[in-house]
Amino acid sequence: MPTRWKTKNVISSLASGSPTPTPATTRFNQRRFEMSDQSDDSDVGLKVVAVIVTAVVAAVVGYAVSLAGKPAAAPVAEVVAVEIEVPEPVGEALARLYFEIGQAQLAAEAADAIARVQAALGAAPDAIVLLSGFHDPSGDAAQNAELAKARALAVRDALVAAGVAEGRIHLRKPEVTAADGPPEEARRVEIRVQ
Questions:
Q1: Rg (CA), the chain
Q2: Where are the compositionally biased (Low complexity) regions (predicted)?
Q3: How far apart (Å, rounded) are the C-alpha atoms in residues 162 and 156?
Q4: Residue 165 forms part of a structural domain
Q5: Per-residue pLDDT tens over the stretch 44-64
């Protein structure tokens, strides 16, 4: 390679009218040429890196643009409303639990009713528990229905805590009592084992 440079250097010096290079200038120019070759190698490396980086950026931008034009993906699983048929009450209630006005906490007497339900379920392994919450027609109907539901859920939670399988417990839609009945009847949950 230095020979090639020397030839170029001699030709360029002759063309420019400058004298033929001396050994010192030849060594200097040779080092400069070798450095120039190294510089060319690193320039090629930088160009390759630049091309790769540009390609990656273009691919990412292209992918982002393609996603922007598409609608959102459909959900993986759809929620399907399933109506479970709740049986009609049959016969008399096994127990009636009464609640304080505006409250959904079970009274202390509830433990006896829970024990009777457990005994009845033990005697009838295929039976279910049907809970019916009641409220009166006065006041806000939606609020009353929510309170009746909360009371029925409190009874369900007590039954589950006592060991009754949750799958055996069914809740009916909250029911309205007759306006002329005793007021505590509007604050009850009936428990049937059927």
A1: 45
A2: 12-25
A3: 10
A4: yes
A5: 666 777 788 888 887 777 777
